[in-house]
Amino acid sequence: MAHTEQDTIALAELLAAWVKPGVILALDGDLGAGKTRFSQAFAKAIGVKGIVNSPTFTIIKEYEGECLPFYHMDVYRLSQDEADELGLDDYFFGDGVTIVEWASLIKELLPAERLELYIEHLGDEARRIQVTGIGEGYASWCRAINEMGAGR
Fold first, then answer.
1. 135 in Cβ contact with 142 (< 8 Å)
2. HSE-up of 27 (CA within 13 Å, CB side)?
3. Which pLDDT score, from 0 to 100, does residue 13 have?
4. Which of 30, 38, 57, 119 is the most exposed place for a label (fewest CB within 10 A)?
5. The whole model's pTM is what?
6. In sequence order, which residues have a C-beta less than 8 Å from that of residue 37 and are 6 or more positions away?
7. Are 61 and 55 within 8 A, CB to CB?
8. Buried-exposed string 12-44: b where 16+ CB fall within 10 A, e elsewhere
9. DSSP strands (E only) in 3-125
10. Cβ distance 38 to 117 under 8 Å?
11. Sign of the Cα pseudo-torsion (16, 72, 103, 111, in order)
């Protein structure tokens, strides 16, 4: 549970501390739930300088972080076929870390292993963030979050 925006930022910072090339964060949630805000906090935590905004109309934005590239995607306006033609594997299996907003729309194209986050708006700044690790590496992240008490 994220009671405030700062709680959402803290989760983004925690996950950013664990990233390595090829990490995939698959974000979903209602409009206005905080997917882009989470992405901004994550980008800042990995050392991306400047403004990170929603790639709704550009689909994919690439940024340089301090240690690795950050690929920020918004697939809300894409069909499965259109997304398939973008060569997403080059990003998913490349040298950077990728956040995909509206990831459930292209679930079949996502790597078999990923961290899924569903952000639900509960009013004011409160959010419920469900984190699911698909694959052992990401499942271990979820266990660590739960052990810290951040998964409630």
1. no
2. 27
3. 96
4. 57
5. 0.91
6. 5, 8
7. yes
8. bebbbeebeebbbbbbbbeeebbbbbbbbbbbb
9. 24-29, 60-64, 69-74, 97-101, 114-123
10. yes
11. negative
Task: Please tell me whether residue 71 adopts helix, strand or coil conformation.
Answer: strand
Burial of 134 (0-12, 13-18, 19+ CB in 10 A): middle
- What are the pLDDT digits (tens) for 114-128? 999 999 999 888 899
Instruction: Show the tokens assigned to 108.
Output: 């079949």
CA distance 8 to 29: 14
d(CA 10, CA 41): 8
**And the tokens for 38?**
């989470």
Q: Helices in 35-125 by DSSP H: which ranges?
A: 35-45, 80-84, 88-92
